[in-house]
Amino acid sequence: MKHLLSIDEVGTDGLRHLLDLSDHMAEINRRPVPKVPALRGKTVVSLFFEDSTRTRLSFETAAKRLSADTMTFSVSTSSVNKGESLRDTIETVAAMGVDAFVVRHMSSGVPWQISRWTEASVINAGDGWHEHPTQALLDCYTIRTALNRPDGFEGLHIAIVGDIKHSRVARSDVWAFAALGARVTLVAPETLLPPSLDGWPVDVAHHIDDVVSKVDVLYMLRMQRERIHEALVPSLREYTSRFGLTPDRAGRLRQHAIVMHPGPMNRGVEMAVDPSELPGSVIAQQVTNGVSVRMAVLFQLLGSGSGLAGEAS
Amino acid sequence: MTNGGTGIATAKSVVIKGGTVLDQRGEHRADVRVEGGVVTEVGAALRGGDTLDAGGCMVTPGFVDLHVHLREPGREEAETIETGSRAAAMGGFTAIVAMPNTEPPHDSLAVVQMVRRRGQEAGLCDVLPSGCITMGRAGETLAPMAELAAAGVHIFTDDGTGVQDPLLMRRALEYAKSLGITLAQHCEVSRLTEGAVMHEGACCSRLGVPGWPAVAEELMVMRDIELSRLTGAPVHFLHLSTAKSVDLVRTAKADGLRVTAEAAPHHFTLTDEMLTGFDPIFKVNPPLRERADIDAVKRGLADGTIDAIATDHAPHPAELKEMPLDQAPPGMLGLETSLALSISELGLELRHVVALLSWRPAAIAGVADRHGRAIEVGAPANITVFDPDLAWTVSPARLASKSRNTPYAGRAVRGKVRHTVLCGVPVVIDGEAQR
Q1: Is residue A30 part of a domain?
Q2: Closest residue to A108, CB basis, from B209, B213, B322
Q3: Does the distance separating the beta carbons of B204 and A128 come in below 8 Å?
Q4: How confident is the model at residue B164 (pLDDT cuts 50, 70, 90)?
Q5: Residues in chain A within 8 Å Cβ distance of B213
Q6: Is A194 within 8 Å of chain B by CB?
Q7: ipTM for the complex?
Q8: Residues A69 and A159 in one domain
Q9: Does one domain contain both A158 and A125?
C-alpha cells in the first residue's frame, strides 16, 4: 500500500490488518513512555487546506510517537494565499524531502491529484464531501473494542443519522462498516441523502425513531446550520424533532448500544442530550483511538516492518 | 477572388488526385481541380498544376464546426484565433463558429469585426463570429442583434450560460425572427446547477461531488421548444447531453417546429465514470453523463434528430486543469479529434458522418453558399480530404491547439485528415499546417 486515499482500496483484509496493527499501537500508547523509533528519519508533512483541530493534532501525535519528523503546512501562513498553485506547492514541499503528505482539503479528490504529482505517500485526512478514511478506521476500531468484536461486525446493526449527502465521514464509514459485515442503515430526510444510492450497501430510514431501539451502534453526524438556507431542511427545530438524539430517545437505546459522533458536535441539534449523561457514549474513545489507528496507517505506509518492539532512544 | 475575405491569393491550380469524392449527391472516384478559389474540374485523370495525393482518401465538402471557443480576445494564454484556426484546419474544418464568451464578449460590432479580421489574417479557416443574445451575456438586456446581423452574424448565443429569463428569451426570439438569424441556446437552468461539478447520478454520489442534474438541461430544452412554437422563430440547441433532451427535440421536429440540435463527440464517447480519478481534464459543461445518454445521443445522430456534430472545443491552460476539481474550469479540446471519434464510435456510414460534420452544420451556420457545398464545377473550393482507415493515437503534445486539455490522450482512433483546402488554397497538406 503506497497511499491511503479511500477505504475502498484498503479492502476487507487490509482493514482487518490495520485494526490489528492499531491494537499494537494502542499498547504502545498505554506505556509510560509512549514512543517507539519505528519511523525515525521519516518526514511527515501535514498539509491542511481546511481548518481542523483534532485530525491534525491526532496525525501529528501519531507521527511523533513513531519518532517521525513532522512539518505542518497550513494555508493561512502559506504561499497558496499568494496565488501559488496546488501542484507548485506540492512539488516545492516535496523537494525538501518528504515521505508522506497528510492532506486535508475542502475539495473532493485533491489527495488523488496530489498523488499524481509526488513520489511521497499521500494520506487522505478528509477531502470535501468525499472520504475520511482514517476516521472510518478509528470508528471501526472503536466499535471493535467497545463491543468486543475482534473478528468482524457480522450481526451488528449500525445506523448513521444525519447529513449523509455532505459527509465524508459517512462516505468512508458506510464502506468500512459493510466490509466488516455490519448492516448499515442511513437515517436522513431525502434532501440530506446523496442523489443516488445505487451500489451502496445500505438501507434507508427517514426517522430516527425507526431505528433507535434496534441498533447496536447509533452514529450521529454533525448537522450544519447553513443547510437551512439551502432549503434542505425547514428548521433545526424540525430536524431535531425527527433526527436528533433526545433524552427520551437515548432512554430507548438498547442496553449495550453505543453512541458515536465524529465531532465537533452541535449541542441541542443532533445531540439534544448531554453526552456525559449517555452511558453508551464512546465519543471520547473515538478521539483516543484516532491516535492509535493513525500510527497504524503511518507505520503501514512508511515502516520497514520492524522497530515496533523497542523504545525511542 | 477571395473567399469570405480571407485575403489569400488563390490563382494557383491544384489537383486533388486519386481520391473518392463523397458529398450530398453520392460517392464516386474522381480527381478534383481547384483554381481561383473554386472547383473548376471534376473528372478522371486530371493533369497539370500542383497535386495533392488523395489515394485511399475521401474528398468531401469542408467541415463546419458550430461550436468553438477561440478565447481571443481576453484569454490568449489558452488559445488565440490563429492557433484555434490552425487546430480547426488540422481537424478538417473550413469554417468554425466562434463562441461569444470572450473578454470582452461578442456583444458589439467592434469585437465581432475584430474576431473576423483576425480569422482572415490567420487564413486557416473561415472564422464566423457568433453574437451574444444579451449584453455582456448577463441575461438582462438584448445585444444589438440587428446591427450584428447586418454585419453578417448568423448565430446568436450566450453560450457558457443559458438565457434564464423566459420573457427575455421570448423577446429575443420575436426580435430575431425578422432578422433571419438563429438563436442557439446553452440549455442549463442555472439555479439547478449552482456549484455543480459533474453529472448528478451514482458516480457523483459516491465521489462526494455536487451534481449537475439532467433535468437542468431538459427544462430549458422544453421551454425553448415551446417558445419556438409560440414565436415561430428557429432555435438551435447546443451540445445536447441527455437522453430526454434528445427525445424532446425529436418530438419537436415531428411537430414541424424550426428546431435544430448539435452534439459533441465527448457526449457520445465518455461517461461520468471518467471522473473517478478526480482529473479535471474530464470536467466539461454540460457534463459527461451516463451510458444510456451516450446511446441516446448516438441514436439522435443516426436518425437525424441531432443535425450536427459540434466540438465545443474549449481550451484551458494546464495550470487551470490542475486546480481542484470543483474549482477547475469546464471544457475540453475537440477540433483535432472530432472526425476520428465520429468515424470510430458512431457506427454510421461515412456519408452520414460527413453530413453531420459538413453540409448540415453549414446550413445551420448560414454559410451553405460557400461551405459544405457539393463538389461540382463552380462551387467554392472548401474541401476536406481524409483517410477514413488510418489508425492513430491521440497525443496531446502533437496537437496544434495552444492548450493540451484533450480527454483522449493515448486513445487509439481511426480516421485522419490529410489535406484541408480553404478557398482553393491547401492550408493543411499531408497532416501538416501550411501556415
Answers
A1: yes
A2: B209
A3: no
A4: very high
A5: 195
A6: yes
A7: 0.94
A8: no
A9: no
| pLDDT tens digits, A23-42 | 999 999 999 999 999 999 99
- What class has domain B14-58+377-433? mainly beta
- A141 and A65, same domain (yes or no): no
Q: Are residues A296 and A252 in the same domain?
A: no
What pLDDT, on the 0 to 100 scale, is given for residue A84? 76
CA-closest candidate to residue A220, choices A256, A183, A186: A186
Put simply, the answer to whether A105 touches B324 (Cβ < 8 Å) is yes
- Domain of A272, in residue numbers: 133-286
In this structure, what CATH number is given to the domain that contains residue A33? 3.40.50.1370
Residues A86, A145, single domain; the answer is: no
Q: Nearest-CA distance from B202 to chain A in Å?
A: 5
| pLDDT tens-digit map of B358-415 | 999 999 999 999 999 999 999 999 999 999 999 999 999 999 999 999 999 999 999 9
Tell me the per-residue pLDDT of A283-305, one tens digit each, with 9 for 90 and over.
999 999 999 999 999 999 999 75
Give the residue-averaged pLDDT of B272-289. Answer: 98
% pLDDT > 90, chain B: 97
B202 touches chain A (CB under 8 A): yes
CATH architecture of B61-364: Alpha-Beta Barrel (3.20)
Asked whether residue A16 falls in the same domain as residue A33, the answer is yes
Same-domain status, A200 and A114: no
pLDDT digits (tens, 9 = 90+) for B320-359: 999 999 999 999 999 999 999 999 999 999 999 999 999 9
Q: Is residue A297 part of a domain?
A: yes
If asked whether residues A127 and A148 sit together in one domain, one would say: no
pLDDT band at A313 (very low <50, low <70, confident <90, very high): very low
